[in-house]
Amino acid sequence: MNFNFTKWLANGERGISSNAIATKLSGIDCRSSGYGTDFFIPPSDPADFKRCMQLLNQVPEFRERLSEMKEVSEVWGKLVDNWDEFEKLYYEECDTGRCPKLFDKMKEIGC
Length: 111
Prior knowledge:
Helix content is 59%, strand content 0%. By secondary structure, the chain is an all-alpha fold. The protein has one domain. Helix 2 packs parallel to helix 3 and helix 6 runs antiparallel to helix 7 (100-108). The longest helix has 13 residues, at 46-58. The relative contact order is 0.17.
């Protein structure tokens, strides 16, 4: 198992959507209990998106394979297709403590 991934599993800031990426791309079930059958939920807000970015920053091999998340759902596909724009918006707005532009764009694609 990849050291960076192991480190993220042990100490990373995790959420449903970052666990979804980790599960899909690693083949290891990283799910938390209590989420029912619809586990591959995309990020629902900028905080969720941030946790996904943190995973991809910590495990660069997953960033290279992010397009595989398109197989999960249409919404994940739209998210992956717009990932760079969403990251840019996050970094533009994160210092304010709020990310309204990012949140609006996420809602536009169905997150």
